[in-house]
Write a structure and sequence with these properties.
The complex is a heterodimer of chains A (about 325) and B (about 375). Chain A has 14 helices and two strands, in the order αααααααββααααααα. Chain A has about 325 residues and is mostly helical. Chain A has two domains: about 240 residues, no CATH class; about 35 residues. A two-stranded antiparallel ribbon of chain A has the order 1-2. The longest helix of chain A has about 35 residues. Chain A is globular. The relative contact order of chain A is 0.19. Chain B has about 375 residues and is of the alpha/beta class. Chain B folds into two domains: about 160 residues, Rossmann fold (3-Layer(aba) Sandwich); about 130 residues, 3-Layer(aba) Sandwich (Rossmann fold). In chain B, the strands form two sheets. Chain B has a seven-stranded parallel β-sheet, sandwiched between helices. Chain B has a six-stranded mixed β-sheet with strand order 8-7-9-10-11-13, sandwiched between helices. In chain B, α7 links the parallel β7 and β8. Chain B is elongated. The chains are: A mainly alpha (about 325), B alpha/beta (about 375). Chains A and B meet through α3, α11, α13 and α14 of A and β8, α8, α9 and α10 of B.
Chain lengths: ~325, ~375
Amino acid sequence: MKGFVKRFSRELEVVAALAVIMIVFGMIQPIYFSPSNLLDILDQSVINGLLAIGMTLVIITGGIDLTVGSTLAIVIVSVGNFTVMGLRPLPAVLAGVAIGFVLGLVNGVLVAKMRLQPFVATLGMMSVYRGVAYLITGGWPVLNIPQTFRDLMDGDVVGSLSSSMILFLAVTAVAYILLKHTKFGTYLYAIGSNEEATRLSGVNVDKNKILAYAVCGVTVALAAMVMLAKLGTGEPAAGASYETNAIAAAAIGGTSLAGGKGSIVGTFLGAILLQALKVGLVVCGVDTFWQYIATGLIIVFAVYVDVIQGKLAAMRLNKKAKA
Amino acid sequence: MKKNRLWAVMAAVVMTAGMMTGCTEPAATAESGAEGAAAEAFNPDKEAGVSIEELREQLGAVPKVDGEIKLGAVAKSFDNEYWRTLREGYGEYQTKAAEAGYSITIDVTSAQGENDEQGQLSIVQDMINKKYTGLLLSPISDGNLTPGVEDAKKEGIPVINVNDGLIANADSFVGPKADQNGELAAEWIAEKLEGKGQVAIVIGMPKAFAARQRTEGFENWMAANAPDIEIVAKQNADWDRQKSKDLVDKWIKQYPELKAIFCNNDAMALGVVEAVKAAGKDILVVGVDGIGEAYDSIRKGELDATIDSFPLYKAQIAGEVMLRKLGGQEIPRVLWTPQALIDAENVDKPAAEIIGWTDPVYEQ
């Protein structure tokens, strides 16, 4: 039990924060606790959650991926076109995943092989990818996405549990295993903590870094296709500034932007927490201007709790050393 | 010791900063005082604007303009269908004016996305350096083109502000009355609901002039004319389709009696349509802009209405007004361009017929 608490201390904190937020909103607006509302929170977390999971992998390596919104746009218009041209849903999804993988790969190569700073490299590619998305359609949205595709990516499967929610849970599980129980995951943490030492110990740093960006591209592609299914339309303007929310979810979940530290479960909860907050503010009819402030404060507070915790841990270590 | 030094440095910084602001502040206000005040006060919706029909009646035919006319039109961003249609309108006007005997070219460019304030200003300054005859500007923000407009004035180049953002120091504003489109939506919804029921508003971006005015127009009309209609919710969705769908998913559950939703633009309205469809509810959805997708959706019986401000004709009006100005006519500060509500009844009617469009009469 103690081991569990220790191992998941950050996650448990986010759960506690989530509980506080939900209780507060639930007390103000009882409708907040209705099953359909809770399900909505999960449903509406899917897109940002998928982006944030990819983002977490990249941030753990000490990088960042600002292209997620633009990558989403390319995938949404490309896959939209494929389905409208008559490609069946499953091949269309695979094509989307492949596109996401390749776009992520390009980011990874820029960062790992050409040694560009991740922030700057992906800042540039954010603009490039957005331009590509506009070029693909000439600025127009792709309309009338076939119902079969929409059912595959966002149809009801069991009761009110939709395929997109199941996808979100599945991706979370896979990413968790990838990070915690494979060499790839161990390498990502190692690269983020000390890239040089990792390299010297014989790990192929470049390859693993590139893969992290590519996997991020894949989760973004999945998010794009969920959005395409939800809206039935693929706009090249879709996803603008979505990277900020993805980073926020990761940060709330305890992922450090300095690299080397982060958790998928934390990110999953972070995405849920952000949406629980958003939905709560909406349900309670909080003024828009205050919504910006509330969301921002939660992010800052969450990260601050992390800092305090780090200090406390250091103090404890000190005491132990002295004793 | 170290701490003391730090304090000393900080004190010095604060003092210098204080001195600098102390020195520059009065000068800055003196320079921008008149303009700054005007920028805050200028709201075309509050001005006594005239319509294009009234203007034509007052001023008669479009006068002759000698020599080569080279107009520069700068839009916000061609990412957006609205601005692409406006570009088309300028192109059409160039052809029509050329047919009427003017030697005219209209160069249409846009900034690189709706956050490229500085880039848009560079385009304008380049046009001034190249001695364009007149400028038709649609600035990204209310302030980003102000320096360019000052330069244009020094060079004697007339400036017409087409649609929002607003340029306080432009010669004239040509565009739709933003609060009127909220009013048109309110009036239509009130009529369909027979004056009672719950409605909600999805706002664009709270910083945007158009979003504020559209929302205000809607609310004011309802308050004044339909006391039994209750606005139960209003929130912003940042012009984003997905965000607006998420928002309305919630509202539908929270307000089972919700009867109509007004959205500040069509993209958001189309997101709302998805939410309403998924919930299997019968809720009226009204958007603004009149984009092609909105027309299709109305034809399919999904979206209920949109307010179109006809950028294709707005551009032609802007061109005509510029020719009048170059020909020496006195142009009012604010000129309203037509807008109309499009629903299932008039969705297939040609726009020219809806707004009663006629081409102007030329002297030459």
